Amino acid sequence: MGTPTLGHYLVLSGLLFTIGLAGVIVRRDLLIMYMCLEIMLNAANLSLVAFSRFSQQVRGQVLVFFVITVAAVEVAVGLALLVSLYRMKRTTKAEEITALKF
Description:
The chain contains three helices and no strands. By secondary structure, it is mostly helical. The longest helix is centred in the last third of the chain and has 31 residues, at about 60-90.
């Protein structure tokens, strides 16, 4: 079989990104959409790490470290907003949450 090449990593990253994009477009549950956005972010991280590995430079891996740090904060804030929306509207369906006013 051999060792994976840069192309293998990029194909996997593209598949992950496509799955995430399809999930955001097709699904209407905010929590599922949020998880699909995270899959898309991880697909971009995989591409950065792959390019970094095959170019023998650390810059991409350092950038991924910062992206993961920002993503952790984003998850905390995003889930807090989703919980708040659920407590107010009693649903996580995107169609039923039409206005963000109280």
